[in-house]
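Give me structure tokens for this 274-residue protein.
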Amino acid sequence: MMWPERETLCKHPKDRYKKERNKMEAYTNDIIMQIRNLDVSYDGKLVLHDISMDIRKNRITAIIGPSGCGKTTFLKTLNGLLQEERGAKVSGRISLEGTEIQQVSLETLRKNVGLVFQTPAPFPFSIYKNLTYAPVYYGIRDKKKLAEIVEEKLKLAGLYEEVSGELHKSALKLSGGQKQRLCIARALTVEPKVLLLDEPCSALDVKASAKIEELLLKLSERYTIVIVTHNLAQAKRVADDVAFFQDGRLVEAKMAKEFWEHPEQEETKEFLQG
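Here you go.
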């Protein structure tokens, strides 16, 4: 059965306008992170310049652009990791739910804004200890509660059936795709508000990458996701919003459909055309 186009469901032009206006108001009001006039430099060399954009709740935002354009630097700035690097200087404003991240401790920030790296990096512990490490650090000691967290997050990551009988096996013995899903599950054990992923599929084969993409789509129902990817096809498959970076600048940021179909900037058009 073919559903009618959304516009045809509104019988009167005013109805259509009202519906679209409500949609845009919801889109605008659902901002979880704001970045304003962000500059980042290393040893005096500017690598990100005047970045201003919004991250919207329960959506997947894809950060795309050529190698060396500042995508990973931007991601690391959002959870305070870059600010700890020697020679790095950050100015501008980044806020999470209205609170500037500079006003909270790094411990609190990292709990609320998780980061999964390009290369899967499980701790050299058991699968179980990988998943209980952060909850224990943040004060959870009850064994029953910890077991519930482990089971819930493994199921959420689509990994439970594969490892449920081997929770005390070293996480380092998992396959590459399993390690990456474990790292995602581990990041979720403290219930972050935002999950950042830096090229999470670059080291994986096609089958493992497809599982990660499927996982991200499912997770976006509960979490806000920001993913850096060089894979435009992947960005098209998973992203709700897209931001294009080039030479340390934010060139264009839009809802995904508009971005792919109607890019405005010449730099964006040239990049998408390859």
